[in-house]
Design a protein that fits this description.
By secondary structure, this protein is of the alpha/beta class. The protein contains 10 helices and 11 strands. The chain has helices at residues 12-27, 51-65, 76-79, 103-107, 115-119, 147-151, 159-169, 192-202, 221-228, 246-251; strands spanning 3-8, 31-32, 39-46, 68-75, 93-95, 129-136, 155-156, 173-178, 207-210, 212-213, 238-239. Strand 10 (212-213), helix 9 and strand 11 form a beta-alpha-beta unit.
Length: 252
């Protein structure tokens, strides 16, 4: 049985991507082993938001190259021109985030699941909590941030698609994640409040938690939904703040 290993750096969106790739590989007969052990395919899901993230990503790729015959570099570092990618072994396979579902074809796997199987391959079902990425990309183009250039423009999964994934996962808690999560639904004239209420009303026994959200676009009605459904929507927010100082903000 062929084996694979994954090491993930960075945000929860990367974690969700790794879970999806792991399930795709498992559905094709691959067995996962812990990173650090020898494996036929070593995957490093990189982060490139800081110079330190680039350094750690390149370090992990070099380590993977010593452990496996095939090395796959994915994540934001694989989408950036320069950065960590320039310091990894030349034989490593580059797999940008928007190509993660093509991993089997890219590594030359003999068996590739059908489209229906891939649709179910978002997350492994061996835990009570699962990550579900519902949004990708960002339109903010902040001066200090590379994310829009490596993840693309903001785009959301429709709520009907999200509901279908939730129903298939079979876990007690779903963590809704994204690159710019607060912007979910803008292209549908919807927001996170609409999504949470839709999911609560169309499922039972499942608790929902939001991953990192940005205060500037965060819909205030989410607080009312948390109060209305305390057993279904976790009263928890992880706010993304660059700096809380008015002085520093003005200087910027």
């Amino acid at each position: 049985m062929p084996t694979f290993s994954i090491h993930t750096l960075g945000c929860r969106a990367n974690q969700a991507d790794s879970e999806q790739m792991a399930q795709i590989l498992a559905s094709a007969g691959f067995q996962e082993v812990p990173f650090g052990q020898a494996a036929d395919c070593q995957i490093v899901n990189t982060c490139t938001v800081t110079r330190e993230a680039d350094r750690k990503s390149a370090q992990m790729v070099r380590r993977a190259a010593r452990l496996g015959e095939q090395v796959v570099v994915t994540g934001c570092g694989a989408a950036q021109k320069g950065g960590a990618w320039t310091r990894v072994p030349s034989a490593a396979l580059r797999l940008p985030p928007d190509q993660r579902e093509e991993i089997l074809q890219r590594i030359g796997a003999q068996h590739c699941p059908s489209g229906e199987q891939l649709e179910r391959a978002w997350l492994r079902r061996d835990r009570a909590r699962a990550l579900l990425r519902i949004q990708e990309g960002c339109d903010q183009f902040c001066t200090f941030c590379i994310v829009p250039y490596v993840r693309g423009r903001a785009r959301s999964q429709p709520r009907e698609w999200i509901l279908g994934q939730v129903q298939q996962l079979g876990v007690q808690e779903i963590v809704l994640s994204g690159i710019h999560l607060s912007a979910w639904g803008a292209e549908f004239s919807q927001d996170l409040g609409d999504l949470l209420e839709f999911l609560v009303k169309n499922t039972s026994g499942i608790r929902y938690r939001l991953s990192s959200v940005e205060p500037d676009l965060f819909p205030q009605r989410v607080f009312e939904i948390m109060r209305r459904y305390p057993d279904r929507v976790c009263p928890h927010l992880h706010l993304v703040l660059q700096h809380a100082s008015d002085v520093v903000s003005l200087l910027l």
